[in-house]
Amino acid sequence: MKFRRSCVLLLVLCAAVFAAPTAGYAAYPDRPVTYIIGWETGGGSDLVSRVLCAEAEKHLGQPIVIVNRPGGSGAKAYVEISQARPDGYTVGNTTGTISTHKFMGVIPIGHEAFEVVITFNSDPGGLWVKKDAPWKTLEEFIEDARKRPDEITVAASNPGSITRLGLQLLEVKESIKFRIASQAGGEARGPSLVAGGHVDACQAAPVTAKSLYEAGEIRPLGVQSEVRVEAFPEIPTFMEQGYDVVMHNTRQILAPKGTPKEVVDTLYRAFKAATESETFKKFMNESGSMILDWDQEKSTKFLTEQDEQFKTLLQQVGLFKETK
Predict the structure, then answer these.
(1) Domains, the chain, ordered by start
(2) Confidence of residue 186 (pLDDT cuts 50, 70, 90)
(3) How much is the CA Rg of the chain, to the nearest whole Å?
């Protein structure tokens, strides 16, 4: 009888142990979630993420606490996210640098080191000059750069950033050379540097340049998208001006590898609902950003394809490093 009683007790204890994780995940989240941004405040990732998180936390049922960790065009943040506990309480956003850093040897990890929660938006690159700059068109700007190689100063993010690569793709396609002023922390400072006359131009997404553009302090020479940005129909694309340069900065939300599927699915539902909110739609439409809501499977497929695209471009600009 004692033996039977012990067996029953053992079975009950085992059942409780194996049931605990499921119960825990069912209760997720029961405390605030930390959202890490690898760029400074005021940049594209920061602006978009803050609006997105404010909407997502309404559906998640817990606050989403944003923490900025600028450094290495997102590299510092990626490492921190990858090393966090895979419990759903630490996530963060990525840009295309999740592909470029790996191929440049900056960090040894890429998207395969994470669970991808959602791809939520895409921003085209753009080229901006001061309101009274001598160049009235993109053609004039490029032709001047052709005559004066390495003299026209253009602000862009650090090497390997998508902002920087958009500018370098133009250099490769047109066989020209700019004097690039690297901006640590992302593209946020570029428009202000242009408006203040500290640089000749900057590479930045419309969402980043919007306020100074609307204030009349800077002018666009074009956007690097296939079609004109809906919020700014007056700005021509590079392609329609005769330059085959298209560069989008696509953002995902990442969780540490091993985060349970139930948790990833919960996060996806909350952030997907946020992308469908009127507040987020209004912000994105007015800022010229494209809204996406790709799930884990579609996002992972896209990131795999993005790896190949950026690997080729990095080889062309001499930044690719062979990995073992």
Answers:
(1) 31-122+249-316 (3.40.190.150), 124-241 (3.40.190.10)
(2) confident
(3) 23
